[in-house]
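DM from R.C. (forwarded with permission)

"hey, sorry to bug you on a friday — could you get me a structure for this? deadline for the figure draft is monday and I only need the backbone to look sensible"
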Amino acid sequence: MDKNFKSGFVSIIGRTNVGKSSILNSLVKEKVAAIANKPQTTRTKIKAIVNRENSQIIFMDTPGIHKPKSKLGNIMVENAFESIGDADVLLFVIEATSKDIGKGDRILLDKIKEAKRNTILIINKIDLVKKEDIAKLINIYKDEYDFSAIIPVSVEKQYNLEAILDEIEKNLKEGPAYYNIDEYTDQTLRQLAEETIREKALRLLQDEVPHGILVEAQKMKRRKTIEKESIYDIEATIYCAKESHKGIIIGKNGAMLKKIGTYARQDLEKMLDVKVNLKLWVKVKEDWMNNDNLLKKFKSND
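My reply, with the result:
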């Protein structure tokens, strides 16, 4: 191992909908986290890997901090808090549109102070505000904690993102590569398929439905067609919490489910570099967000 090689684990923390998953996907240059303009998109800690010439950075995208309304909500918040102690470096993401330190950001700031981790403050969505507003926000946070760096970025404009990787590398210690250099996530293909389908549902469905859904892939099988062409058969079920939601997910004459399936299949074909035969079903599983057996998959097992 090169004695100058660095490695480490980085947690991306922040309130819901501040752009954590978008930042992660932009840094990794692969879609490893579901993105939607809805709160609480990420439910589990997702590891993503960035391999650089002199370092390997392992990211943990965490669920956004919110007020839990179910057992699932409690698990999501627990996962986010646990990741603070697990990390070598923290990326604390806030919105440039903030005028002050809000309640959710204050909770995270207190956790950071308690953990005493090297923390980089990321001010996202700077394209939405004036420069003087960013300067005011920087001064507010500078008075609260000795951040390793404060980096204003815009994922929308793909501005200043490389600076995040440079700053992380400065804060890492010498260490080995934990993963092969051709890997970019530790999620299984099944998990990636489920996340992809769920993301499309999040984007397309009405506000009251998305966070009442769970996606489970029952079949993931690669085969050859008669013409000797490779194809991936994927069968998955979208579970929803209410009977009324089932009709919304399926849509008139199955139009919404078909749309979700089409968009998910297109993403999966790019990801797997092979044709995908995707079949989706919708079933009602009332109050699944409080079902202990179903929630095991969301609990952190690191």
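R.C.: lifesaver. The longest strand covers residues 213-224.
me: no worries. The CA atoms of residues 75 and 211 lie 14 Å apart.
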